[in-house]
Amino acid sequence: MPLELEEGQDPALPDIKGLASPDPSLLGILISHAHQDHWGLVPAVPEDVPVICGSAAEAIVREAAFWTRGISFEASGHFHDRTRFELGPFAITPFLADHSAFDAYSLLVEADGKRLFYTGDIRAHGRKSFLFEQLVHEAPPDVDTLLMEGTHVGQNGEVVHGLPTETAVEKGCVETFRSTPGLVLATFSAQNLDRLVSIFRATKRTGRDLVLDLYGASIAKASGNPNIPQASFDRLRVFLPPWQQRRVKASGEFERRDEIEPYRIYEEEIAKTPESFVMSFSMASASRLEKAGALDGAGALWSLWSGYLEGERGKRHLDFLSERKIPLTKHHCSGHASIGDLQRLAKAMDPMQLVPIHTFGASEFGQWFNDTVEHPDGEWWDV
Fold this sequence. Notes:
Layout: E1 29-30, H1 36-39, E2 51-53, H2 55-68, E3 77-78, E4 85-87, E5 90-97, E6 104-111, E7 114-118, H3 129-137, E8 145-149, H4 166-179, E9 184-187, H5 193-205, E10 209-213, H6 214-222, E11 236-239, H7 242-251, H8 255-260, H9 267-272, E12 277-280, H10 286-292, E13 299-302, H11 312-323, E14 328-330, H12 339-349, E15 353-357
Parallel strand pairs: 1-2, 2-3, 7-8, 8-15, 9-12, 9-13, 10-11, 10-12, 13-14
Antiparallel strand pairs: 4-5, 5-6, 6-7
């Protein structure tokens, strides 16, 4: 699903046989991770086309669809880290990757004596940075083509080295939580589970409890990973904004609410000792918190891309904070590798050719990488 779509614009499927209508030449679709720009067109594809991805990634997509009334997909198979499988004449080896989306993969695809490595979205500064280092030190040999993401290529050259890390985000959050006299209103993506871990660790280090909404708690549960903060963890509570209560009621799935009832918290309890809490915040909870008197001495954390503050929703968020004199602090790190880290990976792979993908700076790749070959979207070419 292209990121640059205008609102209401209907995206066209790529011109590949089997996507718009059944064709036996299409053997399957491999989904690297659960960000919608990588899988958003799958529901438009015939249902009999196999879709393969990580099991946790699929579960997160399906759980998010319940809360957002969005789209999802059903996978016919799942990746397992460094476990090779075959799809027709292709041999595919997934490599678990460090990315802001949980359960993300790079892919080695082999066929007819050729080897292509697709990085997917990747970074070297998250909570699973060891996976990037492992890939650099144990890079697959004899790679003919490296399809490399380059989100930070073309950004005026400023993102070369030294991107903030998840560890730095946690440290910054600790400082912010300690210096805030009241409730901390933390805005971050519920699907960025690395960030959830960073913020939860920071709350514990500062003697606070983390309050998630039911959507966030449900996404954490869907990960299937017991190390991800769950509703049942000590120092974690769950708040139900009105829209989430309505969603549960409309669906009749009251077990969703019942499961978290022992850990549920209400705005009145937060208001009694607001300095004891960090709360996952959106404007949907604002009026209830204000009415309860929970915002005295509050501070706000923005842990998303700053560009989101420039949109209409972001401006409403900023206006709300400004009108109530609630200071805003930003602690965030990118889901994508720096140019320097990408150079390390390219050197380790030493491919015959490197093809830029996932970038607006493809024409600038030659400044940073050897053997770069550009191919526009929709062009068929041989490895």
